[in-house]
Design a protein that fits this description.
The chain is an alpha/beta fold. The protein has 12 helices and 7 strands. The chain has a 7-stranded mixed sheet, with helices on both faces. The model has no long low-confidence stretch (mean pLDDT 93). Bound molecules: adenosine-5'-triphosphate and magnesium ion. Magnesium ion binds next to α1.
Length: 272
């Protein structure tokens, strides 16, 4: 199962959720591959790697899939890193922005070159992931903000997407943009893509603001989309995790946010 974390709004907990959902699924005995699909390399860094030092990243795989598809298996073998958390990782750094630019050129040219019609710039990541799907129970893709084509590629390769939303004033304003992109991908590239749910993050049970965001997200979207049962609690321990290169389960296993990520994983395990 391939799951993308998507929201074009920044700082809503996409990377944190990719890592901790992955770790919770790993703890449940599942084989998990994390993919850093953001040139910022935050997921790569949060797992203890220095993005700029990584020589084999998602960028290599995207470029190989475009230019040397026959070499892709060799590149894949080299690009998969083993993390201390026990999950596998395909890292990212700034070079992913170059790969995104290459995809953009491909997108512009594909409308002129009939012969390239079967090499769609929106489905390159699917080509990259295809050989990996049989090796993992879950492949989790952390999307960035800037390069829309990278996110479209992730959604084209996914079975499900999860939309993290910060439990904060106006934070749910980003949801319509995500829904529009998901619909476009469903229609053009990937009819099996489904929205697993909207996930409220950085939730504080006492502030009235969080409660009202939770209620309004439920009221506006609850009829059409699943809203995950338990919001992810706000905790400074979660924010400290990336510097330690650990998941919340290794850093502070009894923290409430660890319980909420376990609850999310239970819901994900029930997805068909
Ligand atoms: N439950 C939480 N409690 C406290 N801090 C959190 C929580 N979840 C995320 N954070 C912190 O909020 C910040 C943003 O989170 P994160 O990087 O996961 O968001 P993002 O959506 O991936 O951001 P970007 O759009 O930049 O990729 C980070 O500093 C992270 O440590
Ligand atoms: Mg991020």
């Amino acid at each position: 199962m391939v799951i993308s974390l998507t929201n074009q709004k920044g700082g809503v907990g996409k990377t944190t959720t990719a890592l901790n959902l992955g770790a919770a699924l790993h703890a449940a005995g599942k084989k998990v591959l994390l993919i850093d699909n953001d040139p910022q390399g935050n997921l790569t860094a949060a797992l203890g790697f220095t993005p700029a030092e990584q020589k084999r990243t998602l960028a290599n795989l995207v470029l190989a899939a475009i230019d040397y598809p026959e070499d892709l298996p060799v590149h894949l073998q080299r690009a998969v890193l083993l993390t201390e958390c026990g999950m596998d990782l395909i890292a990212a750094n700034k070079r992913l922005a170059d790969a995104a630019a290459r995809l953009q050129v491909m997108q512009l040219s594909q409308y002129n070159a009939a012969g390239e019609a079967n090499r769609s710039s929106e489905e390159v990541m699917n080509t990259v992931l295809e050989p990996l799907k049989g090796q993992y129970d879950y492949i989790i893709i952390d999307c960035g903000l800037k390069h829309e084509l990278l996110t479209v590629n992730a959604l084209s390769a996914s079975d499900y997407c999860i939309i993290p939303v910060q439990s904060h004033f106006l934070a749910s304003e980003g949801i319509p943009d995500v829904l529009e992109m998901v619909r476009a991908v469903q229609q053009k590239f990937n009819s099996r893509l489904q929205i697993a749910g909207i996930l409220l993050t950085m939730y504080q049970s006492r502030p009235q603001l969080c409660r009202s965001v939770r209620e309004s997200v439920g009221a506006v979207y609850g009829d059409d989309f699943h809203v995950f049962e338990r919001p992810i609690e706000y905790s400074i321990k979660v924010a400290e995790c990336p510097a330690a290169g650990k998941s919340i389960f290794d850093y502070a296993p009894s923290n409430a946010a660890a319980d909420s990520y376990r609850s999310l994983a239970q819901e994900v395990l029930r997805l068909a």
